[in-house]
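[PROTEIN RECORD]
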Amino acid sequence: MASKKSNNTPDNLQNVENVLTRSEIFIEKYQKQIIYAVGVVVLIVLAVLALRNWYLVPREHQANAKLVVCQNYFAVDSFQVALNGDGTDQCIGFKGIIDEYSWTKAAKLANVYAGICYYHLGDYKNAIHYLKKFDADDINESHAAIGLIGDCYVNLGQTEEGIKYFLKAADTKNDLVSPIYLKKAGVAYESLGKYKDALAVYTKIKDQYAQSQEASDIDRYIGRATVLAK
């Protein structure tokens, strides 16, 4: 067996040499094209790095600085100013940040702030518009925005649609968040006369979120829905 393996070795070496020779010929023949392709890749990488470091990162910092100013107005319930700005370059409003600094994290967060501002100003359609544009990495922030969309629909008289968003917000199975939106869904069901559905979500709060604030008086809600469901 050893002798047979040894006899094949020259052939293997010859095959390797042939492959190397063909590779050298290919490289020599297409040398310019290969250099050009490598150069293009290098230029693309440098362009991406330049775009990130000299444009995107500075704009993110600018957007964050403007966002903080708007948040200060928001914190004192100056929703109109927080939304539209105070006429200075320092405070262009959440809408201005969304328009001028799109693709930044600050602009993404400005969407939910804009939605909340519109909600407090009673403009529920615009509130829904901006809240639906918000896509949070933080699951709790995301569900809070979804729940507020439910409130907007209820205030617009579209209670069935609002319930869908309450249940979607409750689907996080978070001990703090879920019972809040389950209770909202229950109250909304009752307003539609759907007492069995209301009873189901109230019972879910009692069974799965017994330690929550919403569970402290849930027996009263269960009792009422039970009577009305008959």
About this structure: Confidence is low (pLDDT under 50) at residues 1-7.
